[in-house]
Amino acid sequence: MTETESTTDAFDRDSVRSASRIAIAAFALVGVLYLFTLLPGVDRLVPLTPVTFAAIASAVVTAAVVSLLVYAAPKVASLTRTALHRTDAADHVERIAENGGAMGYWLVVLAAVLVAHRGFAGVVVPLLDGLAWTYDAAFLVASFVPLVFFVARLTVTVDPLSELVADRVSGSDPTGDEGTDANEGEPSAGRGASDEPADESTGIDTADAHGHSIAGRWGVDDEFGGSDDAGADEQTGS
After folding, report:
1. Looking at the DSSP assignment, which residues form a beta bridge with residue 199?
2. Nearest Cα to Cα of residue 103 among 131, 133, 73
3. pTM here?
């Protein structure tokens, strides 16, 4: 295992452990709140207020759960992106992973807004009297923000997701190595004949040795040719 792989595994494990810890803490807080509401007298009003003890406890637990959800949103996005990511994947697969992480993030934020609306209602609404609609209107506007971002990411994911489905159905390889030359590993025809290795035992280049031998042969031929010409001249003169 390389150093990069071990670092990635450690990062993934830490992210999973952190996200699971947050989820377990949130469920534990909800369970404690449920047990608290079973206690006698918690449904009575706090003196001089229209709010019950159970509503105050619910608001405290809601604040803790919302904080945990907001803190967990980036980790959920990272885990989703890692789960969808593939090494040497095509561009549309990378876009699906990126958009999937963003959608996971905004879904958690939207869940935090909805939990806050439900949990704070018992404390805030009784104090507003006839203006209780403003409470719903405020959370409606707040919930539109993560919902719009989620829909935007979902919209731009349709096209790459359709490409991925087409690749799966047609049996194509959804990698980014398209257009690779099939003869990439074959040697070039123009260089194979000229690149002659050197003789490692003698340290003499084979091509140079051939050149010297050819030059020597031509030199011998010239010498023999010169002797024949000289002999013919002598016979003519005599």
Report:
1. 204
2. 73
3. 0.64
